[in-house]
Design goal:
Blueprint lengths: L1 H21 L1 H13 L2 H22 L1
Length: 61
């Protein structure tokens, strides 16, 4: 189980690093837009992202 958790964390780090590596200016602009976004909207985006991840994980498994 530890191997699977470390694999998942490793994949998250790789995916998180793709956008700043491929398009640093676009990444900076996205972060600026996120800083201006209200916290309530950020929470909704985070919730939707988690739900999409759980659904995808359920479909894959």
């Amino acid at each position: 189980m530890l191997v699977e958790i470390l694999t998942a964390i490793s994949l998250v780090l790789v995916l998180e690093g793709l956008l700043p590596f491929l398009n640093p200016n676009g990444y900076k602009n996205t972060i600026r837009l996120m800083l201006e976004m209200p916290e309530s909207r950020m929470r909704i985006v985070g919730l939707c992202s988690m739900i999409a991840g759980v659904v995808l994980l359920t479909l894959v498994r």
